[in-house]
Fold each of these.
Amino acid sequence: MIKTLAKSIREYKKDSIKTPIYVSLEVIIECFIPFLIASLVNDIKAGTSISHLVYQGIFLVILAGISLTLGTLSGYACASASCGFAKNLRKDMYYNIQNFSFANIDRFSTSSLVTRLTTDVTNVQMAYMMIIRTAVRGPIMIVFAFVMAYIMGGKMAFVYLFTAPVLGLGLFFVMRKTIPIFKRVFKKYDNLNSSIQENVKGIRVVKAFVREDYEMSKFENAATSVTADFTKAERILAWNSPIMQFCIYFMMIFVLTVGSYTVITSRGMDLDVGQMSALLTYSMMILNSLMMLSMVFVMITMADESSHRIVEVLNEKTTIDENVDGIKDVQDGSIDFVDVNFAYSSHAKKMALSDVNLHIDSGQTVGIVGGTGSSKTTLVQLIARLYDVTSGSVKVAGIDVKEYNLDALRDQVSMVLQKNVLFSGTIKDNLRWGNENATDEEMQEACKLAQADEFISRFPEGYNTYIEQGGTNVSGGQKQRLCIARALLKKPKILILDDSTSAVDTKTDALIRQGFEKFIPDTTKIIIAQRIASVEDSDLIIVMDKGKVHATGTHEQLLANNELYQEIYYSQNKKGEVLDA
Amino acid sequence: MHNQSHSSVAWRLIKTVFSFYPVAMPIMVVCIVFNAIIGSIPSIFMQNVIAIIEQNWEHGSWSSVSGEIMSLVSILIALYVLALISSIIFNQMMAVVSQGALRKFRIKMFDKMEKLPISYFDRNPHGDIMSYYTNDVDTLRQIISQSFPQLLISSLTVITIFGIMLYFSFWMTAVVAVGIVVMLYVTRKIAGGSAKFFLRQQNALAKEEGFVEEMMNGQKVIKVFTHEKQSKQAFDEINEQLFSDSRQANKYANTLAPIIMNIGNVLYVVVAIFGGIFIVSDVQNISFSGLALSVSVVIPFLNMTRQFSGNINQVSQQVNAVVMGLAGARRVFELLDQEEEKDEGYVTLVNAKEVDGKLVPCKERTGIWAWQHPHKSDGSVTYKKVEGDVRLIDVDFAYVPGKTILHDISLYAEPGQKVAFVGSTGAGKTTITNLLNRFYDIQKGKIRYDGININKIKKADLRRSIGIVLQDTNLFTDTVLENIRYGKLDATDEECMIAARLAGADDFISRLPDGYNTMLTGDGANLSQGQRQLISIARAAVADPPVMILDEATSSIDTRTEETVQRGMDALMLGRTVFVIAHRLSTIKNADVIMVMEHGRIIERGSHEELLKEKGTYYQLYTGAFELE
């Protein structure tokens, strides 16, 4: 796990190494200062000349200046290292997600990816910052403070060997008790927030059914349970501070009694007053370092879960080989399915598609109908190699799709997805997804063909109209037509519309299809539709049922001898009510 | 929303927490005060002990001074024990209080949210509302449990130490004071910059979050259009901005501690040198204690200087937390200050039975519902059977003043009738249903329900009598069965299953892995949109209301499945007044009356046959010559 994460440090390796070096130097100087001050105090006591005092003072001020410089340098390096590391982590995750295949995308929900890219990375960043700074500072500080204390106070320094373990053990037990609670409670906390989200989204349902009180009591229970766990953890953590105080108090009393005993019995030989006060300073340094180290552990634990989630994304290997060296030229728009079987996952019990054999000529218009769950979408997704077949093969222009360079294939097989998305930006920005260099004329042409030009030109800002995130400011039908135009701009050899005109009225729907016949006759057009009217005049209609090709033929053929097709047809056109358009 | 200043937000936060814990908070404050003062006085003992050593170290006889030192130390031990006890009490209480306060804030916010009018949710992006719970409340944790106590402890300690310093020596105190002023000035500068960049970092983070969310949502589109490269570029730009803001923020934050600490070190040296100069040059000391300047005064002074700068360092570490916490608190209060949905209705819904041809209210469920209508004028109470007669008379409505959405809407739905609305998006169909259950209130005209002005009916009872199925189904994280039971909390399992059968949902539910006990998560993400619609129809069916609104309720169910659901739907609609909104004309053909709407007006009305004969808009729609948007 750490290895995977460490790969993202890259150009911030230098800063990551500089930080602990600066920190170490800073700590060493920091440990010297009380030592020198002790001698300064003794000099004052001994009544040295003022000029000598001032020399000593200047020396100390210079040391403080160096310590400050090192502190600032380490602070800067640490900020660069940790923020840079976080930046690279986000970048690496995002880049890897861009390589995800559809199968990979299906495995992660949008919200979980967002959390991984934001909150989780922030947690790791904080932990990293503490590791290269505080975690280095703590142990060095403890060692040096001890050494200095030993030099000055001799055996008295061994008091640390008593207090430090007391504090260390105390903190250790506190951590051991709280960490599992925290791990548990964070999950509960996520659930609490997702239940709030449900309420925000479903407020109409809550209010319509007058369930405000019910939801409130449900929420109160959930919140109380989360709080109970958090409180339990916090109450254990709350022992940290008294344990720390106990150690400080112990040290104070020890130094005051044993210290003064030593000073007096040795007549200031083993220990003098200045050193006595320096001992107190060192004890504070050691205890503070221990305290900081315990904070580092808390942070690391919190980041642990996050790291796992990040690594999961970083290590996710795309399930589709892009075949960079593959064939880049797609000759025509003919399609073949040869003994195709397909399952979404290797351990799925049922095949989503089985025994599919089909041939589609280049330039044909093909309609696909069938009930919900009959695998219509699955079938067409294999053409653009959004998923790979489990067995058998899918061929475009007579060549297995796996032989093509993936980008080249997808540029020629343009697909309008069922769950489609427009992005925030102008209409033009969105259209350019199809072709980055499209001219205004080309865009207008595509929109005319998709029957979108008419409503776009009615917008005050026309093609420069800003589309809100998720396309919320255009109607469902308008959105679908924009998506079709976007796909048309690719000028593909094969165009697939997956239920892409469901919100468009029948007349416009027909106009779009007529336009296809007239202006892109050489493009193979595959249309999945609920409405029979949308596929009626296709060259070939494929009826799908339960993952199998149930029947193929023209409208007339199917209507004459296919029961399922008839059923669908009559559910939409009741006898005696069929009106001619 | 008026803009509250930092200090007024801080005050309100403190007052609110005190009101949550009126007993615990004062006890805690006492503990803090006690702790802070005890934390500051060891310097006095130290001075005493050192003074004793000073006088005696040359003769090396421990026994002559041990009594004096030991009695001082015993007092100190006693004080420490007390301090430890108060510290334990304080810390334990703080754990309970800070978490408890967060819990109370969350519940208060949630309760408030549930009471807000629908318009609030329509106006505010859901992400913003969520952020109250996910971001803002969490910022309160640190400010309550750490920042406020730390500020209190530090200021008390500083005051106490200052007092003790004056007790020892005015001159020395003056030297320290100059140093402190410098320190405070630097803290203010750096911490201010740090806070500025932390807020910037928060904004950059929010921006990146929004971007990532949009892109992750459209990831499949990115793949289909091989748009990966552009998507990476756009991301890099935003990511780089976040990096530079957060690096800046952290640079400030990281350097603050070394700077304060080293100013502390310099101050320490300066105090030591001045101490030396004062002693050597025999300056006349001025102090409360009347002590002469000596090493036994200078040494505790040095420790106090360290304590002083330590406390300022502690406070400065809290600055970011305070700035972010107050920003969070301000937003939380903003939510809590929102105006709740008003309800002045007094007509209530009661169970009733007929006794001697008269309606009498009763406790048990009888299947008969009545409006209990108290009359203010004569104090009498009348009962009227709930039948589902709905009338809109000359209704005008605008979401935003001046932008009228509905004009002169008049319509009558008799009990048991099916009324359908067709029209383009934005024609006002859904708005009418929003008015019926008073999600919004009309500006002009009247709405009568069984002859009663709906403003007189208690909102809860009005809504209970109107079932609603929306196009965007919202299911809750729970089992299928519990989701159906949502319509009527005391429904038996049997009743829920009957409702599911009625809605035509029984078939697919029984094929789910755990049947009716299958857990639904993420708004029913494991179901198809059509299946979710069927469950929400069952949910409305189990409520068994006299009036039903179906707003695009079957839009995602394919026509063949709709055929099979249709019988159930017909049974569901039987004997109820039903308002249907549908895009698909086959869904509404058999309505008693169809209203064709355009730009907030009803332009045609009549039965399917009548409207076809009229050869107007409906005819054009039906024949596909006209488009709905």
Amino acid sequence: MQLSTELFKPLEQKVVQTELVRPSTTYWQDAWRRLKQNPAAMVSLAVIILIVLLAIFGPMFSPYTYSEQDFSRRNQGPSAEHWFGTDGLGRDLFTRVLYGARISLSIGFVASLVTIFGMLYGGISGFAGGWLDNAMMRFVDIMYSIPFLLWVILMMVYLKEILPQNAGLISMYLALGLVYWLPMARIVRGQILSLKEQEFVLAAYTIGASKKRILMRHLIPNCMGPVIVTATLTIPQAIFTEAFLSFIGLGVSAPRASWGMLASDALVSLKSFPHLLFFPSAAICITLLAFNFLGDGLRDALDPKMRK
Amino acid sequence: MFNYLARRIFYAFVALLVVVTVTFLFMHIIPGGPFQREKALPEAVKANIEARYNLDEPLYRQYLDYLGHLAKGDLGPSYKYRGRTVNDIIDERFPVSMQLGGVAIAIALLIGVPAGILAALKQNKIPDYSVMFFSTIGIAMPSFVIGTILMYFLAYRWGLLPAAMWGTPRQVIMPAIALAGAPTAFIARLTRSSMLDVLGQDYMKTAVAKGLPQTRVLWLHGVKNAIIPVVTYMGPLLAQILTGSFIVENIFAVPGLGKHFVTSIYNRDYTVILGVTVFYCVFLILANLLVDLAYPLLDPRIKLGGRKELV
């Protein structure tokens, strides 16, 4: 019998996939994927990026400055030269609204920065437990017992007196910094309280990780979802507070322009020149709306329970 | 229960003391003092004024003095309006703010709660979408934007309502709506989500299964449970109405306490700023205490003392 070597060739191996494997995605990729499916949040994100770009670069391309007065062109309606018209002193409203965007966004930025302090405060409080936690949280409770706005107003009244005239913006940062870390401290503490009982923390202890390392490397990174949502939702609150204070005359000083101040100035001539009110108000509303939508979208996206 | 009450009142006192102290310090360590701004006064006159308002004593004496008077409910004199005390001002102005705030709270509850219930019952249908749409806009619109838009259209363009001042019911409408805008939106969202939560509960199915009439299921089993988060929101709502009055009363020239508070900030009338702040804090802290105590009456599942926060 003739046996050909052909017969002894190994069969071509078929790789049979027994289980379906989907590419592993990290928590953040997953969250981003979910965020992308939320049209309101994505539009808001685009609007926010646009506002940020306009605030940074807009004034550079504008032929006018925020304080330049032109008495021959007072209270004009929107036109090709002055897109949003001019105010009672002949200043270009578009440039002033853009300048106001800088102030509002910087306020929002500072407020979201101080939440980092709140994160550490809440982290330490929740992690330490016992009397330290009790003392730290009682302090937060006391601050919470009167409205933030009242704290900020008191602080502004004081700072406006001790700081030089043009330091309105600095006082605003300080006054907002006083209170805007508080919500974050509460939220992070709550998260840490439940996280610190979990097995991975025990595992970290058994291999000899220091307390500081456990807090900074294991606990806080695991709170990042709620932290980001809270920070995002702090921004519109701070922007609102700034507009509120500027509206009652406690904000930045003239000739600088913030949205609240522009709206407040427009009130005097509201009957004849409503456009002066319309544009800054629209700017405030659009910005607040965008940040709120983005915050809501992030909350949905960062919650692992929403995973489909 | 008694223990809890005692602890709550103790913390309320501590919070109040901290607020009084901080506010007192802020208002008294401002360099120059309240009378420095006016034209340079002769030394003797200045000394006289300072003696009149106890400003020549050391700070700690002034502070203890203030606390002593405060315990008797005396908030001291106004720096700006000679012969008037902070108590006079509050007595005169606060009822106006109360009326306005009361109407605003009524609007917020009477529109917000039914809108939220409607949205939950018609989830993902047109009523739901429209309630959510308006409530989202309502939350993003500061009271001064709502107020000025109302004023422009209702008063200037269409001449339907008086633009400002106070006294007739028609003058309450616009400021009350401006004040109620954001809270209404928030209450509608709150009611919607809590109603959705309740609708999914097993006891709702049980109630339907045992053949209760639909309205009874909806109101006694549904709405009554869904309303509880709205009650807890009453504290923050009061705070929001109160701070909102600073702006709204200014726009519509309502002679309330909020407007006067802002005026005293312009005037550097420090005793009034201090006194009104203290008054607001007592008011809010008491209101929060009452809300927390009323809470278990609505929901027997809640036991007092279970919540640790002091808010």
